[in-house]
Amino acid sequence: MIRPAKPTDMDQLTRLIEDHAAYEGFPFEKGFERAEALKRLAFGSATRLLVWVLEVDDTLTGYMSATIDYSTWDAASFVYLDCLYLSPPARGLGLGQKMMETLESFAAERGIPAIQWQTPPDNEMGLGFYRHLGARELPKQRFTWPVSQRPALTTPPIGAAA
């Protein structure tokens, strides 16, 4: 069953997130309350994160998370698929496609014309799946700029008094 996540899912969801990070070869930072942070983002007063889970026999075997963002070039909102992960036993059963269809329905119901996402270039299984969906590949490189390590600005920010 694919359904929206509930606050009570956070412990199982956190384990899936850790498995997902390992699958993609990314470090998983332990030592902070990820489940509580996810609860605040997905269920708090300022909800920003949309999460669906795949549940089989009371056990979460996959998850998908997204946000709604905006494209200046397209002058339209889009759904940004942040994560889609299925545990190994859930793969190859058509469940990833069902999850993507769930996200597509979510976007269509809200008049959002597109879904965007990224995947590591060596994620052959994911690349094949996305191509099978008919998704279009865009040639871009993803960057991240940790704010805590940001150098001091040498020019005033946009909108600052001169």
Could you explain how this protein is built, in words?
The longest helix has 15 residues, at 10-24. This protein has helices at 10-24, 34-43, 95-109, 124-133, and strands at 2-4, 50-56, 59-71, 76-86, 115-117. A hairpin with a 2-residue loop joins β2 and β3 (59-71). It is built from four helices and five strands. α1 (10-24) crosses α2 (34-43). The chain is of the alpha+beta class. The radius of gyration is 18 Å and the shape is globular. 15% of the residues are buried. It has one domain (2-135): 3-Layer(aba) Sandwich (Aminopeptidase).
Furnish the topology, listing elements before pairings.
Blueprint: E1 2-4, H1 10-24, H2 34-43, E2 50-56, E3 59-71, E4 76-86, H3 95-109, E5 115-117, H4 124-133
Parallel strand pairs: 4-5
Antiparallel strand pairs: 1-2, 2-3, 3-4
Helix pairs in contact: 1-2
